[in-house]
Amino acid sequence: MPEEILSQHEIDALLSALTSGEMDAEELKKEEEEKKVRVYDFKRALRFSKDQIRSIYRIHENYARLLTTFFSAQLRTYVNISVASVDQLPYEEFIRSIPNMTILNVYSLSPLEGRIILEVNPNIAYAMMDRQLGGQGSGDYSVDNLTEIETLLISQLFEKSSPNLKEAWSSIVDIDPVLEEFEINPQFLQLVSPNETVVVVSLNTKIGEVSGMMNICIPHIVLEPIIPKLTAHYWMQTGAKERDPETYAKLTTLVQDVNVSATVILGRTVITLQQLLNLKLGDVITLDQSINEPLTLEVNNEPKMYVQVGRRNKKLAVQVLEAIERRK
What we know:
This protein is of the alpha+beta class. It is 35% helix and 26% strand. It has 11 helices and 10 strands. The protein has helices spanning 8-20, 25-33, 50-75, 91-97, 122-132, 148-160, 162-169, 220-223, 232-239, 245-256, 273-277, and strands at residues 79-90, 103-110, 115-120, 176-183, 197-207, 210-219, 262-265, 295-299, 302-312, 315-323. Strands 1-5-6-3-2-4 form a 6-stranded antiparallel beta sheet. Strands 7-8-9-10 form a 4-stranded antiparallel beta sheet, with no helix packed on it. A hairpin with a 2-residue loop joins strand 8 (295-299) and strand 9. Helix 3 (50-75) runs antiparallel to helix 7. The protein is elongated. 21% of the residues are buried.
């Protein structure tokens, strides 16, 4: 049970009451010795630890960044999406907390069982649709009478955003998100039983001048197979994996076969365009390179080595003198 922290004013008031006799110190001790009872609501069972909730928060922080980039490109306007909170509550409570008429995108996450809901505030959804149709991004519409064209535009936009969900979850599990349903009335969408625990990730969303919320509802049945991975220990293990020698050897071989461009610079000079046009056979161009100084070997336009020119097997060649240290 979390400890209650008193403010300085409350501490002063408590000391004053003890000094004046309004409160009895012995009674306070008896109260502390008595068994503390905490009310537990079995209808609202907490099935995820704080550590697991933090892992879900981290996953969807990445998801929010990916969505920000995706919607910014699609809508060509200012978009900002960030995680506001991650809570666990009964499914029935989630349904009661969202508007009676809203945008509900239902995704399956194969191979995981169950489905999740991405609920989008109507103002946000209409701002997105308005931008798609060339408007300024106004969200002043009613969701009660969505036309078939409006439904298609909004659902296609969120269907295209599915790869972002796949990428955000890839650190935990490889999923294949598919938009299966599009609904506007939460009462017609019975995803799980009313008392089933769900995790609700709330995203603060701003599209241009319009602000609102997007909520991701993830039932316990979806997360159950990957619960062991939603721990700090798993994240630390994943980040500290040792390098696989076989994979490293294959990668090294592949890298060694990559073609690169190597060029020896004989010298450089600057001439005018008029001088270039007047060049003819037999003309001499003076370079800035002395014959007593080594030449520079560039690899992909980056200076790498000092070399000298020679011949090898009747072909022009260069001999490496020393490497060029990269300036920090």
